Amino acid sequence: MTHRGSLSERSETKRVERAQRVETGSDSETVRAVAAVDLGATSGRVMIGRVGPDTLDLELVSRFPNGPVEREDGLHWDFDALYAHVLEGLAEAVRREPAIESIGIDSWAVDYGLLRDGELLAQPFHYRDERTARGVAEVHEIAPFEELYQRNGLQFLPFNTLYQYRVEERMKDADTALLIPDLIAYLLTGASVAERTNASTTGLLGVRSGEWDAPLAERLGIEPALLPALVDPGTVIGTLRPELAERISKELPVIAVGSHDTASAVVAVPLSSHDSAYISCGTWGLVGVELAEPVLTDAAREANFTHELGVDGRYRFLHNVTGLWLLSETVRAWEAEDGATIDLPELLDAAASVTGEIALFDANDSSLSAPGDMPARIAAVLDAQGSSVPQDRPAFARTIVESIAAAFADAVQTAADLSGREVDSIHLVGGGSLNRLLCQATADRAGLPVLAGPVEATALGNVLVQGRARGGAPATLEELRALVARTHEPMRFDPR
After folding, report:
1. Confidence at 41, pLDDT banded by 50, 70, 90
2. Residue among 308, 314, 319 at smallest CA distance from 408
3. CA distance 423 to 290
4. Mean pLDDT, to the nearest integer, of 284-312?
5. Which of 87, 133, 160, 171 has minimal Cβ neighbours within 10 Å of its Cβ?
6. DSSP string computed for 347-358
7. DSSP-derived secondary structure letter, 212
8. CB within 8 A of 327, min separation 6: which ones?
9. Comparing 370 with 134, which gets the higher pLDDT?
10. What is the pLDDT of residue 412?
């Protein structure tokens, strides 16, 4: 496996080696630098990406926390703090690498900010806020899910944006609604756009047309004028506002990437064949295959498979599986109980040594979706189904990992059945690719080889789309993925 050592250590080593090649005149390739803003549901990063004919690497500039904040009217994001971290990270990135040519932003999906006359009306709601349940009931009374699926191709998730919009009290006061990466791009440039891959997660984009479904929005009481012009990945959104260019010390364009983080991650999946499946694994596990045409069948709807748009017009035909959220929330509860930090690699090593029958539970059980005492909730699910609850932490962690792996394997098989693909391998990217126990368990339960890595697939996909737009990376997705495969060799786990 090529990604050993810390990300910053590897990046610094590569930077020194590249500088030495330049000094000796042996660097025959042109390497371009860009800044990638990569925002997740628990943390965000700003990274420097460097891309060339045989170069693709990342340098971590800053990492900062992100998470829900309980306010009087519900669960929100601390967006002001998030944006401040982004600006600080960009300024530091340019200080470290003055050759940076552009900025790209990706984030989690579905959440949004509302503007009036260019001003943010309130801190954006968090997708786990309880108000979405009322939105689901009201939307489905107007447009049943069967109809919605034919229009937008999306699996049912109670926090999809159209359900949030339906119960958003400030909609009547707004003149623009922007998803999180588009909101940050607006604050940076003053240009209001909706990047298409992320717009496809709202439920208001036509699955076949790739355009806003204005008639559906009007039926749901959502003013279509709130929805900005759509752009594709690779489009220059605008340049930094003068005061921000001065703060960051460089006038830079902001380029639309696959602004839904999974869209960026899938760009950087080094698919080994046309029939490979992928799992982008972090807080969530996004499990599916890449298609050229949607599969809008009753079976796909009943299996709750979604059609989110990918870069270059591809469809990410996938299912959301609860991912490492279950393990991280469990560890967080144990740490609160102990008043001390738990060594996760040590816990997973101990979990791998557990023998005997492993109890499994449904990783997608709705009772496990909200923050809280996760060990108690999982124990309750196991108890309700008549399974014994593991009494020590390694066995409990093993049950969690095996349950996630079983859900992954089931979703891969369903994706194959629904799409008619003979899946021959699984590429697992993102933070979950570092979890050897999860990778092996997924291979065992799916009966297919798992190719793990790259870890930083989302940021790499962000960098690749920017690099291509700047003329510094290959033109096709297949060529971009070949570059990933050359520079980030995956680790293989064969089923036992």
Report:
1. confident
2. 319
3. 11
4. 96
5. 133
6. HHHHHHT--S--
7. B
8. 397, 400, 401, 404
9. 134
10. 98
Q: Please, which pLDDT band fits residue 340 given cuts at 50, 70 and 90?
A: very high
pLDDT of residue 18: 44
| C-alpha–C-alpha distance, residues 65 and 84, integer Å | 12
Tokens (6 digits) for 82:
């998030």
The answer to whether the beta carbons of residues 76 and 69 sit under 8 Å apart is: yes
- Model pTM above 0.85: yes
Q: How, if at all, do strands 100-106 and 112-116 pair?
A: unpaired
Calpha distance 164→195 (Å, rounded):
19
Both tokens of 360, joined, read 């499994």
List, in order, residues 6 or more apart from 200 with CB less than 8 Å away. 152, 154, 207, 210, 260, 307, 308, 309
CA distance 171 to 101: 36
Spatial neighbors of 87 by CB under 8 A, at least 6 apart, are 244, 247, 248
Number of C-beta neighbours around residue 332 at 10 A: 15
Bridge partners for 119 per DSSP:
116
CA nearest to 34, candidates 216, 256, 220, 246: 256
Q: How far is CA 222 from CA 46, 82, 165, 172, 228, in A?
A: 34, 27, 7, 9, 13
Contacts of 179 (CB under 8 A, 6+ apart): 107, 109, 110, 111, 112, 161, 194, 195, 198, 199, 202, 259
* Cα–Cα dist 247/37, whole Å: 17
What is the phi-psi region of residue 273: left when phi exceeds 0, alpha when psi lies from -120 to 50, beta otherwise? Answer: beta
Helix, strand, or coil here: 403? helix
Tens digit of each residue's pLDDT (9 = 90 or more) over 216-230: 999 999 999 999 999
Interval 86-95 mean pLDDT: 98
Contact call for residues 325 and 337 (beta carbons, < 8 A): no
Question: Of the listed 213, 261, 410, 444, which one is catalytic?
Answer: 261
Q: Which of 282, 265, 303 is nearest to 460 (CA)?
A: 265
Neighbours of 239 (CB within 10 A): 18
Residue 46 DSSP SS3:
strand
Token pair for 151: 């229009």
DSSP readout, 242-293?
HHHHHHHTS--EEE----BHHHHHHHT---SSTTEEEEEESSEEEEEEEESS
Instruction: Show contacts of 186-189: CB within 8 Å, 24+ apart.
Output: 186/115, 187/83, 188/103, 188/238, 188/240, 188/241, 188/244, 188/254, 189/237, 189/238, 189/239, 189/240, 189/241, 189/254
At 20, is the secondary structure helix, strand, or coil? helix
Query: Which pLDDT belongs to residue 26?
Result: 37
Active site residue 349: no
Distance of CA 220 to the CA centre of its chain: 27
- Percent of the chain residues past pLDDT 70, beyond the cut: 94
